Amino acid sequence: MDLKRTPLFDLQLAQKVRMVPFGGWEMPVQYEGILAEHRSVRSDVGLFDISHMGKFILKGKLDQIQPLIPSDLSRLRPGQGQYSVLLNEQGGVVDDIIFYCHSPEHWTVIVNASTTEKDRTWIQTHAPAVDVQDLSQERLLLAIQGPNAQAKLQPYTTVDLSSIARFGHQTGELLGAESFIARTGYTGEDGFELMLPLEEGRSLWTKLLNDGVFPCGLGCRDTLRLEAGMHLYGQDMNDETTPLEASLGWLIHWDKGPFIGREVLESQKSKLTRKLVGLEIQGRGIPRHDYPVLFQGAPIGTVTSGALSVQSNKGIALAYVPIELSILGTHLEVDIRGKTVPATVVKRPFYHRPA
């Protein structure tokens, strides 16, 4: 299968970079190294090419858009955003997405790369009166993340970045081009996600790197998001996983009107059998995807995401376990390459950025 490439591919090859297949794309997994890039984002600033992600503009009546997700979009004012999930009729997660409100009838929606076509078809099928404009190939998407992200980005935009609240957004100029600027990210740090035309996006990438901003790949993006307790679609949830099981019940606004999958979720509330939890390894060992999770030696689940936390130097993981074993402080084990290693159910996120 031919892999897609982002508009920054040639510029990335000019760096010291290692490329890997990811969701149908050829993407950088690391430049300097995962640890160096991770630490740069936590202590300074890093730059990610996330142009592979899907980018939609939705225009239509709010009551036609609302049933697509369990979150109440009527709560948002222009300039605000909402993380949520598309659901199927069984309450399963079609994708996790962010809705950004320009007006009740105008939304920017960012979706995962591997589900872009599926999501577009799903929205068009279940909200046929809503106009869906797909900008995925027409716009470049960057994420600048870290405590110094605002200072590094501010010289290149006319927007006062300090005026954008967390999960807020504005449309303004970046390098003279009208661009979308959101104070969101996938790292647990402060930062911005930027959608802009291809030429200006390539120029901004080069300028920021010349300013000393670290280029960062998928490797550290994964360790950063796991420390922050964030889900990866396709691993930590999928079409057969409900938001209640995935510990995303906070996305469901039960006081809103009908939404796809609502009846199944209402029925599941009182008889939930499993739940996604955070695990911290007690001792040496790094949990990885699909490693067995045990209770008193018996298999009870599998790791969905796992890594060594760079901040704590401990193994951390997400895993589905029976509801009765999901209580904080419960002692479990993880089978790490044939060795049973103690683990404890802990509160997420595993990392909090300094106030």
Description:
By secondary structure, the chain is α+β, with helices and mostly antiparallel strands. It folds into 3 domains: 9-53 and 137-227, Gyrase A, domain 2 (2-Layer Sandwich), CATH 3.30.1360.120; 55-125, Aminomethyltransferase beta-barrel domains (Alpha-Beta Plaits, 2-Layer Sandwich); 273-346, Aminomethyltransferase beta-barrel domains (Elongation Factor Tu (Ef-tu), domain 3, Beta Barrel), CATH 2.40.30.110. The protein has helices at residues 9-13, 34-43, 62-65, 116-126, 149-153, 198-210, 218-227, 262-268; strands at residues 18-22, 25-30, 46-49, 54-59, 81-87, 93-103, 106-111, 131-134, 139-145, 169-174, 177-182, 191-197, 214-216, 274-281, 292-295, 298-308, 315-322, 331-336, 339-346. It has a 6-stranded mixed beta sheet with strand order 10-11-12-9-3-13. It has a 6-stranded antiparallel barrel with strand order 14-17-16-15-18-19. The protein starts with 8 loop residues before the first helix and ends in a 9-residue tail after the last strand. The model has no long low-confidence stretch (mean pLDDT 97).
